[in-house]
Amino acid sequence: MYPIAAMLVLGSIIIVERLYVILFVYNTNSEQLMNKVRRLILENNIDEAIKICNHRKDAALNRIFKVALLNAERPYDELQEHVEVSVLSFVPRLQRRMPYLFTIANVATLLGLLGTIIGLIQTFQAVGAVEGSQKQILLSTGISTALNTTAFGLVVAIPCMLVYGYLFNRINSIVDDIDHYSNQLLLLLRTGKDYFDHFKVEQNITTSQTPKKMQTKNAGESDVA
Q1: What would the mean pLDDT of 162-183 be, rounded to a whole number?
Q2: Alpha carbon distance 82, 73 (integer Å)
Q3: Helix (H) or strand (E) holding 95
Q4: What region does 44 belong to: left with phi over 0, alpha with psi -120 to 50, or beta?
Q5: 3-state secondary structure of 56
Q6: DSSP SS3 for 81
């Protein structure tokens, strides 16, 4: 029971720390940040965009954006390398101590099973040394105590596994946002306003529009007619 209790304390510390860091320190509103930075870049106000990133300087995407903006005047290849290095160095921070949480859940379960087995062994050994009238009481008490170890191990393991799965998905979501919006920022810094103007909603081709080649062909057929 004491080793399982130690796993409970250690797992609780990791859970609280990771939840706080991932949900409140490293996380940010990616779309809102991108819109603000895009507007300032199109206004040629890089300094103000850097200040926006400094409002939450510990957030993952803010850090990546700041690196890109600070190196905005460099050639595109160098700019891209700086961003890639920044991303590669930051992702391990998101995943820090996550393997420990997974290990604690497994170890707590195994310790519970081990405690139950040891408890049953000791119970049956004790039963053999007492009189027949006391064997049933001693056996039921010993088995109940032994099974409590397994129950305690599962009580520790199940929350650890649930939190691990949740944080794992959150980390993947943050990494996806970093890849998506950092690439958008790189394209914006490279091509400027023309890139985003080209992809405005009202200019997107839809199935209701006639392709330009078909329009030209139809116009030629009308002239012949």
Answers
A1: 92
A2: 12
A3: none
A4: left
A5: coil
A6: helix
Residue of 167, 200, 188, 199 lying closest to 33 (CA atoms): 188
Residue with tokens 């810094």: 189
Alpha carbon distance 129, 35 (integer Å): 77
The token pair at 118 is 């040891």
**What pLDDT, in 10s, does the model give residues 105-145?**
999 999 999 988 888 887 777 776 666 667 677 777 778 87
Q: Say if residues 16 and 101 touch (Cβ distance below 8 Å).
A: no
Q: 132-191 and 76-94 are packed helices; what angle lies between their axes, rounded to 10 degrees?
A: 170
Q: Is the confidence at residue 215, as pLDDT, over 70?
A: no
> pLDDT-based confidence at 195, cuts 50/70/90?
very low
Apex CA 93: angle with CA 36 and CA 32, to 5°? 15
Query: At which residue do the structure tokens 């305690």 appear?
Result: 152
**Quick one: which of 84, 29, 96, 17 has its CA closest to 59?**
29
In a 13 Å sphere around the CA of 166, the CA atoms on its Cβ side amount to 11
pLDDT digits (tens, 9 = 90+) for 54-65: 888 888 889 999
Q: Running DSSP on this structure, what letter comes out for residue 211? A: P
- Give yes or no for a contact between 95 and 60, defined as CB atoms under 8 angstroms apart: no
Residue 3 to residue 221: CA distance in whole angstroms: 86
Q: Give CA–CA dist 109/4, Å, rounded.
A: 9
How does the average pLDDT of the chain come out, rounded? 81
CA 225 – CA 168 distance, rounded (Å): 66
